Amino acid sequence: MYRDRTCGELRLEDAGKEVTLAGWVQRTRKMGGMTFVDVRDRYGITQVVFNNEINKDLTEAANALGREFVVRIKGNVAERSSKNPNLPTGDIEVIAETLQVLNRSEVPPFTIEDNTDGGDDLRMKYRYLDLRRPCVRRNLELRHKMAFEIRRYLDSKGFLEIETPILVKSTPEGARDFVVPSRMNPGEFYALPQSPQLFKQLLMVSGYDRYFQIAKCFRDEDLRADRQPEFTQIDCEMSFVEQEDVIQMFEGLVKHIFKYVKNIDFTDPFPRITWNDAMRFYGSDKPDIRFGMKFVELNDVAKGHGFSVVDEAPLVVGIVAPGCAGYSRKQIDELTEFVKRPQVGAKGLIWVKFEPDGSIKSSVGKFFSEDELRKWGEKAEAKPGDLLLVITGEEMKARKQLCELRLEMGNRLGLRDRNVFAPLWVIDFPLFEWDDETQRYYAMHHPFTSPNPEDIPMLRTDTGKVRATAYDIVVNGTELGGGSIRIHDSELQNEMFELLGFTPERAKEQFGFLMNAFQYGAPPHGGLALGFDRFVSMLAGLDSIRDTIAFPKNNSGRDVMNESPSPIDDSQLQELCLTLNLPEKK
């Protein structure tokens, strides 16, 4: 064998033993007649010592080693005179007796260390080197451990892990599909699944009442920190359940993983908030409740004083930033510029300072008296020393703009500690959302989400107010997962398709196999999918899911390491009966 011990396992009790190590050269250091070589493998780092006085040739060979050379070393474990408390192996070193270079290395383009000097693009181009860094390795180890523990937990609850197809039928609702041409069926295409939704429902019809899968999913959508074109979700479905059953089951899973990974005990049930209240108090359907600053509507105390910015706005809404009355003009100007950014979109910002001495200062002081502004403060429950920040405008836009400002203030005030976790459930989503451009309703989740039984009579008469039997689990302002109770009745499903603008022919063309299955005794069922990449990145304390994935894509959906996507040969196009009609290059 090339090695009999790893570079991360030797301890003081191993002193005196002869060992053989193999790994990569992390660094070399020369001190007088001594050369110290740090050898790294997946398990850790061990310091190896070469003594010029004992073996000059061996030491010279060690001096010739470069970073990332692959070496095999035999030697004896000894106690270090100068211990390193930052390394698990820091109490020992190996006194080298032999050195074998198994492979040389070019000088790496960046340092293979936690605090590397490589930028994102460079590290992604050389991802196989980036994966050697201990911090990236720890992320993948965490991912591995979480996957095993999730499987153990769900197995203990009676779930079966069942794989579903990757080549499926295209159903162009929601995000764009990635499509795959079929050589054996010219002119026809598969799609890569956006989720296993239809197949897990078919498994419920088939009698497999508890299914799960750590499933690969694909969506052709614009990317951001928590999105990749291919991602992984913990996909689950259950039969003979209601919403409460699903919530209890997967709240238990999330609590279990938090305990397993972070040793955090969530003993109380996760709080729940309706979608309407989430939008009303936080301007988001994934609110961060690690801190307060709930929205306060000020229409009744702000309107009617001759200030058109307020009087003509459908909504006047604000937040109280505690202890921020001392903000300078420069700081407030920064906040004003923040809300005016195109990503936020507000026209401006109104501020009111409630000074510690009881006086009031405001950007709208010439339009409102102190007594009138004091009523704003009373409505918002502002205290002396607080700062009230107000946005006006169309209702939904103003709430979303204030949401961005609230999160920015949370960051500025240090209230969004990534070591603090605040989960909650968002329930009672709208079943439909209206699109002004196409003048029709779309399913807020997907066409198989069941309406709230109480609201079924309103499907035709008040479509926009129908609530879905849907639920999202949110942690620290991130949607960790979501699901719903599904429609299992064929008549109700057909009505849903009709409301969404599907003709019977189109519904049959896209979903006929599922509708046929429903004719043979579909049980009541529902489920949930948790974003596995997001869950890992959250528990690893990362800002992006990218470093939880071994070989991720960049924000343009490209793998800069293997240079994909890329053109294919004309012969392949001919086999697939395809011709390209490319846009002209500008």
Describe the protein's architecture and organization.
The chain starts with 17 loop residues before the first strand and ends in an 11-residue tail after the last helix. It is an alpha+beta fold. Helix 4 crosses helix 6 and helix 13 runs antiparallel to helix 14. The protein is globular and about 90 Å long. It contains 16 helices and 22 strands. It is 28% helix and 24% strand. The strands form five sheets. Strands 6-9-10-22-21-20-17-11 form an eight-stranded mixed sheet, with helices on both faces. The mean pLDDT is 94.
How is this structure best summarized?
The protein has helices at about 55-65, 120-125, 125-130, 135-155, 195-205, 245-260, 275-280, 300, 310, 330-340, 370-380, 395-410, 490-500, 505-520, 530-540, 570-575, and strands spanning about 20-30, 35-40, 45-50, 70-80, 90-105, 160, 180, 190, 210-220, 230-240, 270-275, 295, 315-320, 350-355, 360, 385-395, 425, 430-435, 440-445, 470-475, 480-485, 525-530.
Topology:
Layout: E1 18-31, E2 34-41, E3 44-51, H1 56-63, E4 70-79, E5 92-103, H2 120-125, H3 127-130, H4 134-156, E6 160-161, E7 179-181, E8 189-191, H5 197-205, E9 210-218, E10 230-239, H6 243-262, E11 272-274, H7 275-282, E12 296-297, H8 299-302, H9 308-311, E13 315-321, H10 329-340, E14 350-354, E15 360-362, H11 370-380, E16 387-393, H12 395-412, E17 423-427, E18 432-435, E19 440-443, E20 470-475, E21 478-485, H13 490-499, H14 504-518, E22 525-531, H15 532-540, H16 570-575
